[in-house]
Amino acid sequence: MPHTPHRLEIENISIGYGDKIILQDLSFQVPHGARVAVVGPNGAGKSTLFKALVGILSLKRGKIFIHGESLGAHKDCVAYVPQREDVDWRFPVTVSDVVMMGRFGQIGWWSNPSKNDKQIVRKSIEQMGIADLTDLSIGQLSGGQQQRAFLARALAQEPHILLMDEPFTGVDATTQEVTFGLLDHLREKQVTTIISTHDLNLAASRFDLVLLINHRLIAFGTPKQVFTKEHLAGAFGNSLLVMEDGMMLVDECCPPEEEHHHAEVK
Amino acid sequence: MNWLLEPLAYQFMQRGLFASVIVGVLCAVMGTYVVLRGMAFLGDAMAHAILPGVAIAYLLQGNLLVGAGVAAVIVALSIGLFSREGVVKEDTAIGILFAAALSLGVALISSMQTYAVDLSHILFGNVLGVSSSDLWMIGILSLIILLTVVFFFKQFLVISFDPVLAATLRLPAELLRNLMLVLLALTVVVSLQTVGVSLAAAMLVTPAATAYLLTRRLLPMMLVSALIGALSSVIGLYLSYYLNIVSGSTIVLTATAFFLLAFLLKKMKLG
Fold first, then answer.
1. Which among A97, A133, A153, A165 is the top mutation candidate for probing chain B, defined by the most B β-carbons within 10 Å of its own β-carbon?
2. Using only C-alpha atoms, what is the Rg of chain B?
3. Domains annotated on chain A, with CATH
4. At B225, is the pLDDT very low, low, confident or very high (cuts 50, 70, 90)?
């Protein structure tokens, strides 16, 4: 398969539900293989941005290009790891079922999984360290294990761009490290990863680029360029407290993000 | 063994048995989607919504199944239309259409002379009145529905479990969802004659809910559900014969007994 640069270009997009615009006039470019943190206060539009990138929310304006072609031209190009509360954990599927779903893009509509598919599934599960849980229902797993099952699925999808919605919220340290291990592995494969997080320390220390948004683009660049007083004040407003010694505090407790209530996918 | 064979001496009993087993299996398979996708209300609504189609077919002396089929597909697609883009919430759209269609159906039927008998057949089924052409129709429709489920198993799994993945895989989710609604509508139509519109919803939900308690993967759930659906139909029909009770209700009550059994089993296991 010929690999063109894994480039993601967002051009003046606006996204919203009905008459309500959640994200206004966003433009940025992500070079191939970059690790991007999406940061912003609750309800800033992080999940909305992801839904647009995945293609379940149509754009009000603007364009998204992947490898220079518009979104949707490539199949299986984008993988998405959903927030845990967006998954029906009572659904009767096992870990291997879930991971195999990641291969459905490659398997034909009316074919069975090939040996190769099965091997990729097995490897992905092993790589996430949940090989002993393969045949358990997803409902029987702990929170961290559940997340790793979905990471394994994303891996099996062999995407060019991986989106993750809040993978570091409420997971154990092992899962967090396994996640970063996966991110390092994906970086070697030149996979672009875009991850929303509330953890500003992680965003500052372990990502190449940070996208700071609050209904519009506040700043995009290296953590050093983005995490300035002006930018943070622009994003967090009164939740930001700047101390005399230069220390900055952001108060963010977490009511459910407003945008989640609008989710209408079934 | 005589008590097993005796009812089968009658041809109408044989046909009835075939019809109810086919319908039992069909409802049970489609029912897994109904249960997992939380469409129980939709199934119930659809069952009642086909009433005007049946009534019109009856008045025109056409085939009841055809009338029901046309009505069901219209209702299924209008639910999709009203609730698309979230203009009206889906359950609201269902509620409105359901009530409107039911009222229209009752209005039409009440204008008939043999009102009471006909209505009870439509509502509760008349499995012993299945003609051999009905049986063919039931068999062929069921085969088409089941084959479609087999063909689209993967796709239906993804749109049911994870709509977002469906989007990233570029599956035509809207189309698949409508296809599923149409299959559900046809299932209700096929069950019209054996359990009737008011009990079809139960056959959609109960065996699948029972299987859900006993299994933990989709395919086994479907198979166990089908088995329970078939068993309920057979046992229910014999009960109906010997106790002289409407078959629709004995079939549904048998299925309910299976559910209670599975529920107790699960409770005991959990402890």
1. A97
2. 18
3. 1-77+160-168+191-266 (3.40.50.300)
4. very high
Closest chain B C-alpha to A186 CA, distance in angstroms: 19
Query: Chain A residues with CB inside 8 Å of B158's CB?
Result: 101, 104
Chain A and chain B share a number of CB contacts under 8 A equal to 74
For residue B127, the Cα-to-chain-centroid distance in whole angstroms is 14
- Chain B partners of A105 at a C-beta cutoff of 8 Å? 168-170
Q: Do B170 and A79 touch (CB under 8 A)?
A: no
Q: Measured between alpha carbons, how far is B189 from B145 in angstroms, rounded to an integer?
A: 12
* Percent over 90 (pLDDT), chain A: 36
Query: d(Cα B90, Cα A218) in Å, to the nearest integer?
Result: 37
For the whole model, what pTM was predicted?
0.85
pLDDT at A259 over 50: no
Instruction: Classify burial at B116, counting beta carbons within 10 Å of its beta carbon; exposed 0-12, middle 13-18, buried 19 or more.
Output: exposed
Domains observed in chain B: 11-262 (1.10.3470.10)
Neighbour-count burial of A261, counting CB atoms closer than 10 A to its CB (0-12 exposed, 13-18 middle, 19+ buried)? exposed
